[in-house]
Here is the input.
Amino acid sequence: MHSSWWLTALLLLPLAGVLGVSLTRSRPERARRVALVSVGVEFALSVVVALLYNAHVAQASTWDFGVRWVVSAPLGLAYDVALDGISLALVLLSTLVALVAMLSDRAPRREPAYLAWQLLALDFTVGAFVAHDLLLFFIFFELVLVPSYFMVAQWGGPSARRAAMKFFLYTFVGSAPALVAVIYLGFLHQHEVGGNLSFNYSALSSTVMTSSQAVWIFVGLALAFAIKAPLWPLHSWSPSTYGEAPVAAGAQLAATLSKLGTYGLLRFALALTPLAVKSVTPVVLVLSVIAIVYGSLVAATSRDLRRLAVFSSVAQMGFITLGIFSGSQIGVTGAVVLMVVHGITTLGLFVLIGALERRRGSARLDDVRGLQGAVPVLSGFVTVVAFATIGVPGLGGFVGEFLILLGAFGVHPAYAAVATLGTVGAAVYWLWAYQRAFHGPLSENATGMADASPTERALLWPVVALVVALGVVPAPLLSRVAPSVQQIVAHVTPTGVSR
Here is the structure.
C-alpha cells in the first residue's frame, strides 16, 4: 500500500464497520462480530502504521504519511492528513481504547446501534488526530460530539439524558468562539500571503499577527479545548456525564475524548499563536495548579469509584497543561507521555468499574468493601492502575509526572512546587479509597463473588503490561515524540528552554 493510503485506510475502516453493522443489525450477534473485526483490524492497522513510521522523515520535518487533496480552493476546503510522533501515539491509544472498551461491555438493548456509535466515535477521534488542516481538525473535533451524546443519552444511567444534554451544550457552545478563531486565522493568513484561503497547519504556523490578535485567537481555540479536556473550572459537565455513561462509552470519553482537548491545546492553540504565550502562560499555569489541588481534594472525598476517576482526571489534566505550558521541551514531552498513560490507566479503571458493577450493581466504595479476599485478582488490577495514577516509580505515570515537574521546575519553580502537592494528593486519595473499598469486613451479599473472568483478565493484562513497559522502557515512545515536541517548543519559544 502506498504511504499516502495508510491514514485514509484508518479513516475508512471504521466507516466500513458501521456499514457492516447496519446491514446485519437484525442479527445482533453477527453485528457484534462485524464491529469487533472492524475495530480489531483498525488497531492492527494502527500498529502497522507505527512500525512503518519513518523516523528519518520525522527528524527532518516531524510529519509522515502526508496527503493533501484540495476539495475547494476558494473556500480552503481540503482533505489534508499527516502523522507525527505525537499524533501517532494518540492514534494508537484511540484504537486500543476502542478495542478493549468494545470487548469489555455489552449493551442490554439495541446493541448494533451502540456498536455503530462506538465505531463512529473512533473514526472521528482518529480523524482529528491525523488532521494536518485546522478546519479539518475542527470538523472531526465537533463530529465526535454526536456519537458521544447518543451513547450516553440512549444507553446510560437513570439521569443519562440530562447529563448528555449538559455535555452537548457545554461543548457545542464552547466551540462557537473556536470556529470564529479558525475562520479569522484563515483569513488573516490569506490577507498576508494572498491567493486562496488555506487552513493548512504548516502554512498557518507561519502567519504573522500582532500580540493582541494572537491572544484572541488563542482564547477562542483554548476555550473549546479546555471544555473537552476538561480543565478546571470548565469541568462541571464531566461528573454527571462519566457517572451516567455506559462502561464502553465512558472509557472512550474519559480516555480519548479528553486527549482531543489537550492535543488541541498543544498542537493548535499554543503552536499557532506563539506571540500569545507570554500573556496567557501565567493564567494557564494558575488554572493548572488549582486543577491539580482541587481535583485531588474532591477525589479524596469521593465515595464512588466513578466520581473518584472523574476528579482524578481533573488533577491529571492539570498536570498535562502544566507540562504543555512549561516552556520546556522536557515538560512538554512529559505532558504527551502522561496523555498516553492517563488514557491507558483510565481505560483499565473503567473496565474494572464495569466488572465491579456487574457483580455488585454499584461502584460505590461501601458496596465493594472487603473485596480483597473475595476477588484478589480484580483487587490486584485495581492496585496496579492506582499505583500508575499515583506515579509510583517503575510505572508509566511516574515518567510523565517526573518529566513535567522536571521541566516546570527549571522554568516555573513556584508552580512546580505547588503541583508537587498533587503527587502527594494522588497517593492519599487512591490509597484511602483502596483501603475503604477493598479492606475491612466484607460488604453484604459479597460472599462467593466470582473473581476476574478469563475475558476480563485478557483485557486487563495488556493494560498492566503497557503501564509497566512505559515505566521501565519509555524510550520507544520518547524517541518518536521528542522531534515533534522539539519543533513546537522551538517555534513557540525560539530562544526558549530546551532542557
Residues 275-499 form one domain.
